[in-house]
Write a structure and sequence with these properties.
The structure is a homodimer of 216-residue chains. Chain A is of the alpha/beta class. In chain A, 44% of the residues lie in helices and 17% in strands. Chain A starts with 7 loop residues before the first helix and ends in a 9-residue tail after the last helix. The complex binds nicotinamide-adenine-dinucleotide (2 copies). Chain A binds a DNA duplex (30 and 30 nucleotides) through helix 3.
DNA sequence: ACAACATCGTTACAGATTTCACAATATCGA
DNA sequence: TCGATATTGTGAAATCTGTAACGATGTTGT
């Protein structure tokens, strides 16, 4: 199904659109125009319509887009047929915040296992997620067919833990450690680099650069 | 001083380079080639050399770049002359993790005040940062000349708190709430949208897209 | 029934960003 | 001293990304 190549940026915007559309649906709004969605997302109307080409969904003039139908169409592109599972490595300050945030939020993409090397955490259930010892990562990730991981271990451990994840079959990593991971070319890594982002903000705050950022 | 227009992406990469260079310096390495820095950062050597043009620093053939000199040159571009101060709004799970992470790390860009509306937190010092009541935000931000803020309040409160920050003179916001903030055009907003990023990772993990991401 | 209208889908364009390619050059070894 | 060599800096080409423009189209009001 679907296009072989949807760009990075487009995927990010579609995910954002979907969240905005869900908000609209909760407000009882069932139709939306490209310029309305654009305004909510902070992009141009042309951008929204262009992104819709990737989805393959067509609205109608005068009515615009059907909110529930569009949510479903975006889901057809972004979501996998069967639910995906994610693992989290490193249940420290950030790891716990993240598990709390995602707990019970996405049925199609949930954190189903956490790993740490701190014996005090292993065996406990934190924010609805069971914590295992890092040494058991391989078998558990393989058994549960986990392909997505969130990496929140200290920078010094990040590469080593990433290697374990990759060996166990993980194909996508959301990396919070301020380190560039070395992974095989078929593994996708997204770096959330807070230090870099904060320096960016500080720089442009000083420069007075006119705002507006696409979703990271 | 310096160029009027350095791109978004270039600023992010320069911040990354600087961190990598600091690591090298700690290892006692005092010279580096563009292809080495490129490999560490996950970009091409041509990209590194192109970014150096924005900095205005020149290396020499055969020797490459001087690590300490390059760190200084990047600092001349990225850092402000006098230290910048940042505020954090919302000392919840994520806010506490972030203050812990940045505590005592950057002398030139430190979190110097936190704000919350939870009376239990107000008045306490958490991770070396004093917590004030959100209602006192305006005067304190103005007095301390704070221009940069990190926003980690619940999504429902984000716009309102952002308005307070902007009124107090903040010109750059690192926003973690899954909401698109409305701010005047002279205020720079960087969205760290974890939900969007996780969906991106899940999507490309499935697609088998060949990796490699620029710094966010 | 049909004209007026606002919006959609798509193609063509423009701008930004990255990569390529190569002349210029500083250093090392003979 | 001087040639050999690997690297730099940068103009030009290529690619990626977003914007603009416009014909096509469905709806509404009369
Ligand atoms: N806290 C933040 O806001 C923040 C911001 C930016 C980046 N980061 C990065 O995120 C990562 C985690 O940050 P944190 O503040 O949560 O740190 P933390 O020290 O609170 O948590 C790290 C966790 O990883 C566990 N751990 C250590 N070694 C391990 C190993 N080999 N295998 C499995 N688990 C291991 C520790 O037991 C701990 O629970 C770090 O790389 C940090 O640089 C954090
Ligand atoms: N925790 C995560 O990993 C994570 C991930 C992605 C996004 N986010 C977003 O970050 C934000 C914070 O997340 P969290 O998990 O820390 O939530 P949290 O509920 O733990 O923390 C929110 C904090 O904000 C304070 N607060 C509430 N209203 C306020 C107001 N009007 N003024 C000042 N302070 C106020 C609360 O007292 C609390 O301390 C949310 O918008 C969340 O969606 C969090």
């Amino acid at each position: 199904m679907s296009e072989g190549s949807v760009s990075d940026k487009t995927v990010a915007r579609l995910s954002l659109y979907r969240r905005l559309l869900s908000d609209l649906l909760n407000q009882g709004i069932r139709n939306v125009y490209s310029h309305q969605l654009a305004s909510a997302a902070g992009v141009t109307a042309a951008q929204v319509r262009r992104d819709m080409m990737a989805v393959g969904y067509s609205g109608t003039p005068v009515r615009g887009y059907s909110v529930p139908d569009l949510i479903e169409s975006i889901g057809n592109l972004l979501d996998s047929a069967q639910a995906q599972s994610a693992a989290l490595a490193g249940l420290g300050n950030l790891g716990r915040a993240i598990t709390a945030y995602f707990a019970g939020r996405r049925p199609k993409l949930a954190i189903v296992a956490a790993f740490d090397n701190d014996p005090y955490k292993v065996g406990r259930v934190i924010n609805e997620v069971e914590c295992f010892h890092i040494n058991d990562l391989g078998p558990i990730v393989e058994q549960r067919n986990i392909r997505v991981a969130i990496l929140t271990v200290p920078a010094s451990e990040a590469q080593q833990v990433a290697d374990m994840l990759v060996r166990a079959g993980v194909k996508g990593v959301l990396n919070f450690a301020p380190v560039r991971l070395r992974v095989p070319p078929d593994v996708y890594v997204e770096n959330m680099d807070m230090a870099v982002c904060l320096e960016k903000v500080a720089f442009f705050a000083r420069q007075g650069r006119t705002t507006a950022e696409a979703p990271s």
